[in-house]
Amino acid sequence: MDGRTDWLSRLLDMFPVSGKLDYRCFLAAPWRINYVPSKAGEIPYHIVLGGSVMLEEPDGGPGRQLVAGDIVLLMDGAPHSLHDGSGARPAPLRDRPTLNVTVTENDGTGERLDMLCGRFILSPAHERMLRHYFPRRVVVRAAANSAATAKPGTGAQLAGLVSLMRTESAVENLGGLAMLNALSTALFTLTLRLASEAAETPGGLIALAGNPRLSPALTALFNEPARAWTLPDLARLCNMSRATFIRHFQDRLGRSASDLLTDVRMAVAANALKTSDASTGAVAELAGYQSDAAFQRTFKQRMGMTPAQWRRQMRATGDSGELAETSPSVPHE
Predict the structure, then answer these.
(1) Do strands 42-50 and 64-67 pair parallel, antiparallel, or not at all (unpaired)?
(2) Are 64 and 55 in contact (CB under 8 A)?
(3) Using H for helix, E for strand and C for coil, what is the string for 25-82?
(4) pLDDT tens, residue by residue, 129-152
(5) Which partner for 176 in 4, 67, 100, 117 could form a disulfide, CB atoms 3.0-4.6 Å apart?
(6) 40-96 confidence digits (pLDDT tens)
């Protein structure tokens, strides 16, 4: 497969993601921030620079403590709360806008927190598909200590990137906003890369990529979606029997290889419909379908509309998946 690229690069080529840093939080206990549901096409993230945070889910389940170096991506955009864990009545928050970020502060006197909060922005249609293949929460540790002392590898790269975000958000340098947006965009890729390298991957595509025996099939599906792949073909790439491949793929991803191939094909088709004037038949062939009727039926099932309707909607809304000039959802009351 000459000219192939890794699966994550192919994924982000199909589903462009842009990042934006919105808040730098300097808080002292007691404090609490209640986050409303994210807007369509937005995935919030939090980076703990100093202190600790309790992440509270809306379903009332047990909270999760995040400490300095932890990064959390909330892939489902669900409402959530962050607090100091004391249970005390929180001190009022106040926002102080700067050129690049909004600084959130309070007058608490307890343990201090330093945290960056932002969001990743992509097409709402692409977001729906991503949520099928990623866990609700992705949590990683950038490094054991600092970028200077972290062991070489993705953790050290991510720690270095976070260090740059910390510096850029603290001062108003020329081009600071552009830098923070670019660093936020890179944050998405590095966080997913580090999650795939963890001993216990969180599930979905990350878990699949973290299994060296299954990753050849993942790379093949993303690089050659139009090929008439069969389960025996994919099993041979992974040096497995057909039955073993099916079982392990399903266990790791939570979906079949056929489901993933269909969704990758739909992504290829959706992008072609949005960016070219190719006929529906030509787009169907590009996505690996010999029958225009079968392609149209599958596209409507997966995307909720016909290819022609999709093309009209994308062109009417200018839905490119690039960073939108919108304000973040107001996170706190």
Answers:
(1) unpaired
(2) yes
(3) EEEECCCEEEECCCCCCEEEEEEEEECEEEEECCCCCCCEEEECCEEEEECCCCCEEE
(4) 777 888 888 999 876 545 555 557
(5) 100
(6) 889 999 999 999 999 998 776 678 999 999 999 999 899 999 999 998 999 999 999
Identify whether the C-beta of residue 75 lies closer than 8 Å to the C-beta of residue 138. yes
Place of tokens 């991957």: 201
Contact (CB, 8 A) for 276 and 262? no
- Strand spans (E) along the chain: 18-28, 32-35, 42-50, 52-56, 64-67, 70-74, 80-83, 94-97, 102-105, 112-121, 137-141
* Residue 254, both tokens: 């939570």
Place of tokens 């099993």: 235
What value does the mean pLDDT take over residues 33-40?
92
pLDDT band at 233 (very low <50, low <70, confident <90, very high): very high
pTM of the prediction?
A: 0.87
Token output for 273: 């419909």
Radius of gyration, alpha carbons of the chain: 21
Structure tokens at 83: 């607090």
Nearest to 190 by CA among 158, 142, 146: 158
**Pairwise CA distance, residues 20 & 107, whole Å:** 27
Does residue 231 contact residue 241 with C-beta atoms inside 8 Å? no
Measured CA to CA, the distance from residue 60 to residue 52 in angstroms comes to 20
CB of 68 closer than 8 Å to CB of 48:
yes
DSSP 152: T
**Closest Cα to residue 154, out of 189, 204, 202?**
189
CA distance 222 to 11: 7
Helix (H, G, I), strand (E, B) or coil at 319: coil
CA angle 331, 177, 123 (to 5 degrees): 60
Is there a contact between 57 and 105 (Cβ–Cβ < 8 Å)? no
Task: Determine phi and psi for 21, rounding to 5 degrees.
Answer: -90, 125
